[in-house]
Design a protein that fits this description.
144 residues; mainly alpha
Length: 144
């Protein structure tokens, strides 16, 4: 899930680098959310048919590649498109919940699901902190 949250703390720098407006940043954020929403709806039935392992692998690969291409963005259109593809990683939540629901008995499934969802949210917060306060200043110092 680090892919889904990785660009958020860097959006101010992206805005400056591309010379785009706040509205264009918001538009790219809408595209990121739209990618997640659409793929969450698709991944649920796919998990029922093929299982969570294969679908999770496909989601992580298909969102990891665009994440690696983030540094190649040169326009608002490219930013919105890449964020839509990265938004696919937001559907990893579906596979996590599917796995957790099938791995635990009914008596403890609620507790397991709440812990799995909570750790996912914590991961998003940690990603924002690490990207914004550790990696970005490090890269800015190293690459000017």
């Amino acid at each position: 899930m680090a892919t889904w949250f990785a660009i958020a703390p860097l959006l101010l720098e992206v805005k400056k680098s591309l010379g785009i407006s706040k509205e264009q940043i918001w538009t790219s954020s809408i595209w990121a959310s739209a990618g997640a929403v659409v793929f969450r709806a698709i991944c649920g039935p796919l998990c029922d048919k093929y299982g969570a392992r294969w679908i999770m692998g496909l989601v992580l690969i298909s969102s990891g590649i665009p994440t690696m291409c983030t540094g190649l963005i040169n326009s608002t259109t490219e930013l919105s498109a890449i964020r839509a593809f990265i938004g696919v990683s937001g559907s990893a939540f579906v596979m996590c919940q599917y796995w957790t629901a099938t791995m635990f008995t009914r008596e403890v499934a609620g507790t397991a699901l709440s812990l799995a969802a909570g750790w996912g949210n914590l991961g998003g917060a940690v990603t924002n902190v690490v990207m914004g306060t550790v990696l970005f200043p490090l890269f800015k110092t190293a690459y000017g």
